[in-house]
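Most newcomers find our protein records easier to grasp once they have seen one. Sequence and backbone structure share a record, each on its own labelled line. To make this concrete, we reproduce a full record directly below:
***
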Amino acid sequence: MGVMRKALFLTVLMMISGLAGCFGGDDDENNDEIVAVFTYSPATNIRAGQTIDFDARDSLPSGVALTYKWDFDGDNSIDATGRMTDWSYPETGEYTVELIVSDGSKSQSTTKTLTIVDATALPPTAEITSFSSDEDCEGEDVDEGNYIHIWICDLDKTMSDRVTAGEVDVELDASDSTSGSSEDYVSKYHWDLDLEFDADGDGDAKNDNDLEGQTVEWKDVKPGEYEIGLTITNGKGLTDSDDIKVHVSYGASWLDFEIGRKTSSDPNQLDFDFTVHYDNDAGNTVRKVVGKLMYPAKDSPCVIGAECQGRIDLVSFNEEGDEATSTEPSEDSQYDNRDSGCDSEKHCIEQTLSSYIFTDSEADSTYGDGDWTMMVSNNQTYTQQVDHYMLLLIYK
């Protein structure tokens, strides 16, 4: 009997050991987190009696058998089942919709609030007022269009401040928006200052409430290209949205300064730093960067018989220190040909960095965006005077 009991015990023990891996595998599969997600259409301006389509196909985990239960009126009873369904509300008001997703052993729910408006209500019209600065930093008129274009101008900066870092407050105006009818009014103005970032984490990057009001001030905006949105709601609960591009360009200038002579074979260089953005995904793309410099064609005073030809250049480097472009000519005689369009007895040079150069590709002619430096470079063995240097970051 003792031998038989021992054999039976060993048999049972082996069976349990063999099933242990099976039990463990089931536990691993059931550890997938359930996430209840649903969308509905139409997403706004839902009218009494209108059919609303609900879709829970984005719920997780995928590839697992899940059940879907819907409560459309907040009474804790199940009104419908299935991944996709529809519903309508005969009366106006706010309704809480709950979705419960289950895999049979555990479940997770999520809720959203729907606003149902009168079937005959008229929607509002959202409109952001477009405008441009009167002049750019060179005194030229700025084009206007269906956008906002503002120039920041830091003119006559000191030589101790050779960094282009400006900010501006932008006034946003929605006063051209309308309520839908003369008997209605706009009750809410919500501004989303970044249509690529979901600040409130609700899954919709275009409905964040960053600022409120018909006219608001967007503070401390740096040079760049932005897309912002406006959503308004009228007294009937109907909404409408508008978006607009905001371009903030920048210009800085330095007047009447000297640059020391070159030493040995190396030119003497003054750094002027700037940050430039080229991000296609975010829609923040610089159009071009321009450096303009004017200096005396001949050094003064000039000793008879001496070479007094001015030789100043602009050289640009990306944040890795790679030289992207330079105005230095291949032959010294070409320094004599810089008087076109320039003041009398002056020489002028201009360096333009197109948007392509700031892209990040495998091509040798692109250098990426980020922190850049444009250097004023003295290629003469004596100190030279600079009359005017301007650096422009143009985003429109």
Q: What stands out?
A: The chain is about 5% helix and 40% strand. The longest strand covers residues 239-259.
